[in-house]
Amino acid sequence: MATTVSLRGKTRVKRVIVGKPIRRITQSSGSVGALADVNIEGLVNGAVLVYNESTERWEATAELNQQEVNGGQY
Predict the structure, then answer these.
(1) Which domain holds residue 40?
(2) Which side of the chain, N or C, has fewer Cβ within a 10 Å radius?
(3) Which residues lie below 8 Å from residue 51, measured CB to CB, with a gap of 6+?
(4) Which residue positions in the chain have pLDDT lower than 50?
């Protein structure tokens, strides 16, 4: 919600309120591996989570076989 005021044809935003302020954040002791759609069986140092469309799960792997990287044009 925004409160606006018009003065001599110019609109000025006086206040913008977005959502409710967070008072306290607590630390979670959860694990990514505890999520239902994540498989961390192949977890090794340097592994990343890659989505497997056939199993519909995220899987830990150190091999990137089907990724396409586009570095843009310079």
Answers:
(1) 36-66
(2) C
(3) 57, 58, 59
(4) none
